[in-house]
Design brief:
Strand order of the largest sheet: 2-11-10-5-6
Number of helices: 10
Order of helices and strands: HHEEEHHEEEEHEEHEEHHHH
Distance between the termini: 50 Å
Largest sheet: 5 strands, mixed
Shape: globular
Radius of gyration: 25 Å
Structural class: alpha+beta
Length: 295
């Protein structure tokens, strides 16, 4: 299929599905489309967790701006057709071109501003936890240190999403009975000036709490996951403890040296980081050679 035919099909598909996009509908009514954050909650750790605190529990919130993303796609479609039209090469009819220009031609892309240096985005996010009977449960959910320092003032422009990392407090978990729990996050900026004002909630995820971890103890993979967690939470001493534990189990652990390098780099210890990375690369090359030689 040629580029012209593909372009024609793309434009016709866009026109066919145009009514389903709220942003385009608002444009047709000569209104500026309202941008509302989309909030998605997921677990970066297993959804079956233990109350013994052996493994940290990660939660991830993704914030995006689908209205801006849709508008950018509309603008891009118009630009492509308009360029081909100037060259006299497009296969779209004048009527279709006119409809596309009226509905999606070079519209302003609405952005969403959240948070500030003084008030990070995480300050406006709360979590609701309920048990199987939908009874509200008190459970401390806190942002990781990297989220507090990096996600201060953010702009959602439709091109990328912003990810915020949270964890469940081990002490709070240890006090809960075993069972299934629903967790949902809410962003509330209704009373905040100088930023987007509104309230949105995420999807709910299910976490199953058991009395003891079902994961094998002292495995390299589990230790490495814990090390990455402590790294993002800026608990560098605990990262080093994990690295020592990994090397004690396996003196040729690449994961241990990667963790040491990342922790040193995060603290501005560039020489130490370079040394750790060189060691990781050396071990990687040795292991690759062993595989090639059948060792």
């Amino acid at each position: 299929m040629g580029n012209k035919a593909l372009l024609s099909i793309t434009v016709r598909l866009w026109l066919a599905f145009l009514p389903i996009f709220s942003a385009i509908a608002a444009t047709l009514a000569n209104e500026r489309p309202e941008a509302v954050p989309y909030m998605h909650l997921s677990s970066r750790s297993q959804t079956t967790i233990s109350s013994d605190g052996q493994q940290p529990v990660w939660l991830e919130i993704s914030l995006s701006n689908p209205t801006a993303a849709n508008m950018q796609l509309a603008n891009l479609a118009y630009q492509k057709v308009h360029q081909e039209s100037k060259k006299g090469q497009n296969t779209v009819s004048p009527e279709e071109l006119k409809e596309l220009a009226e509905s999606a031609g070079q519209q302003p892309v609405p952005t969403i501003q959240l948070g500030s240096k003084a008030t990070p985005v995480s300050r406006f996010i709360t979590f609701d936890v309920t048990d199987a009977s939908f009874k509200s449960i008190s459970l401390l959910v806190r942002p990781l240190a990297s989220t507090l320092t990096s996600a201060t003032s953010i702009t959602l422009d439709g091109k990328t999403s912003v990810r915020l990392l949270y964890t469940l407090d081990p002490l709070s978990l240890s006090k809960l009975p075993q069972g299934t729990y629903l967790v949902q996050a809410t962003l509330n900026t209704l009373t905040q000036p100088d930023m987007w004002q509104g309230k949105v909630s995420s999807n709910a995820i299910t976490l199953t709490l058991t009395g003891k971890s079902s994961l094998p103890n002292n495995t390299e993979q589990n230790d490495y996951i814990a090390g990455r967690f402590y790294l993002l939470d800026q608990q560098y001493k605990r990262v080093e403890e994990v690295a020592v534990r990994l090397l004690a189990r396996n003196p040729k652990s690449i994961s241990a040296w990667e963790l040491r390098g990342d922790a040193a780099y995060a603290q501005g210890q560039l020489a130490k980081a370079a040394q750790a990375y060189r060691q990781a690369l050396k071990l990687h090359a040795e292991q690759a050679e062993d595989k090639r030689s059948g060792g």
